[in-house]
Design goal:
Rossmann fold, seven-stranded mixed beta sheet, single chain, 275 residues, 7 strands
Length: 275
Amino acid sequence: MKTIAVVNSKGGCGKTTSAINLAACLGWRGSSVVLVDLDPQGHATLGVSMQCWNDFGLYEVFANRAEINDVIIPDVVAGIDLIPATRKLADAEALLADWPREKELALKLGCLSREYDYAIIDCPPNLGLLTVNALLAADEVLVPVEMSLFGVDSANRLTKLIHELEERHDTQIPFRILPTMVDSRTRLARSFLRQIWERYPDEILPLMVHYTVRVREAVCKGLPIIDYASSSQVATDYRHLAAEMATPEKEAVPPVTSIAVVAEERQLDPALAFQ
């Protein structure tokens, strides 16, 4: 099982939307996927038309009051099971602070390694213990970054935390940068896209998620974008994301290519390479 944590401490960057749609597109490709809602706000749960405030969830799993298999909701979307956020998840930070439990989520998800091809974790919009658990559980981290000063600053803060955790735990935490909500017609968006490419030339994905009202419409319907507007540009964007993030031995996709390399080959400004 490949575990992908979708992380950014800034709200409104497309984090939860990307987690839901990455999971849905991996499921569309035929993989078995569990979507883990680690955000006490429960937006990933709500985004697939579920509300589980009074049910058992990850808090009970962390407190050893339930097994992780017991809190899974099957088939919330085709090919996707859900570990929902519940009312008590907000108390998990304090629970985890009582012990050196930065790898508790990794231990719990390990029980599912033979049942799923992918676990997609939607993290809370902060850099607390829940997020630290997700980072240390992840085989790869996806960092959605919207085209703003706050978005770029949040990505920089997150990468600093990643490097600190790598040093503390003597491990590697690979991460990929995903530009989101991109309106490439504007100079401002192109400027921030160029900044991100210059700061993370090897980590930025060779694709972007374009801005469109279709995403908000899909959220209101509780549907992934590939079910709501399968022929839209943003649905194509998320299908490409799934292809890039897929495990090579499970899915025949080309290797990830640096945006810098593609820009050079096309003789383009890197900010325009993947319009």
